[in-house]
Each structure stands twice: as C-alpha cells, then as structure tokens.
C-alpha cells in the first residue's frame, strides 16, 4: 500500500503530460495503425476537438479564474463524448483488451474511460461554487440535438410505415414519402457512407464517416446492423440467412433522395477489410 501511495503521489503532477501523450498516441494509432473510429462528421469533429482541448488544458487554465466555468462546461461535454466512445467500443471488448495488456497498444481503447473518470473526479473535488451544475449542464447539452434527431427519425419511420409492407425496401416507393431531413440523409447513407456499428463491413467497404447522433437513435432501437434503419434497401433475408441487395443499391437510393450530396467520402479505412491503414 505504501508503494502504491508513493506511485500515486509521483503520478499526480505528471498526469497532465501523460494525458497529452495518451491523446496524441491514441489519435496516431487510430489514424495510422488500427482505425477503431472513422472520421467524425463536421459538428462532431468540433465538439471532440474543443472538449478534448478543455480537458487537456484544465490543469494549466484553471489558474485563470475567468476561464474556470467555461472549462468545466466543456469538460462536461468531454465526459459525454468519452462515455459515447466507450459504448461504441463496447464495454465487453474493453474488458477483453485487458487480457492483452502486455501488448500496450490495445490498452489505448481505455483512453476514453481514463479521461472520463478524470473529468468527473476534477469536478467532484473542485472548490468552485456550482462546479457540478456547470459540468452537468455541459454533459447534458448534447441531449438537445439528440432529441431533434430522434424527432426526425420518428418522422422517417412514420413515412415508411405508411407504405405497404412489400414496398418498404423499394427505393422508388421510399423516395415518394421520405422527408428530406438530416436524419433521413444519415439513414439513407448507412452502410457505405456513415459508420453506425463497430467493425461493420459490407462488400469489403467500411463506411468512412461517424455521426454519434444517428448512431444513438439506432442503438436505442436494436443492436443489429440490419434491424432498426427504416431507410435500408439492403436487408437481411431470413430464408437465405444473407443480406439482400448491395452497397451500390443503397448508394443509388441515397443519390435519388439527395442528388446534391456527395455519395463518397474518402478515408483510409473505407477500402480495407479490418480498418488497417
């Protein structure tokens, strides 16, 4: 116990620099070694960058009183981002990675958990009045856009449900009733453009873009990649126990709905079998 206490005392002043090293190493590993997360869509990239910067800079910026509450708010957002990342990776996979601790790199999957615990601890021990409320407000902020996407998701579901069952996977029939909304664009672009499930690969193609809002709405319905998406023209055929349709069919349907949006997004992961660059 004495050795552990000494180690923790040594670790505490070095932790800000260890965090920066962990963040840099995790980013490098994801980009150039083994890609677990694809490119975040633009809004998600900004949230990730700004909230992570606030988390990493807190030990230094907290000395500037005027920044304290802003940094706490952004750290709350960072906590939510880290929780999402851990859920996307899958808690069971995180636990299994502990068996390969001697390889070191698999432990990088634990970086979101390590950062989330630290962000929460910083808030709990903060002497700033109302620190927990400010942190909580930041953590809950993303619920607002999530509710907006959920509303659109339900509108898409209702539109598809208005069709006869035999026409619910037909692009021409869907195009007549589907609203052209943010959620509809994400749902129609699944499988080839937007990455909704870990390690989902179809036709040798791994979707290159990552939108957490649509993913949460999908996960809330079902864990299966073929289950909850109402705008899939690729579907699981129970009779043959295989997918029916192809990525080309899904991409053509997407272009039919959104002719002015690019069908393809370039990424090093989108033509590799297992995400290795």
From TrEMBL:
Keywords: Membrane, Transmembrane, Transmembrane helix. The chain crosses the membrane at residues 43-60, 67-89, 95-118, 130-149. This is Uncharacterized protein. It comes from Hymenobacter negativus.
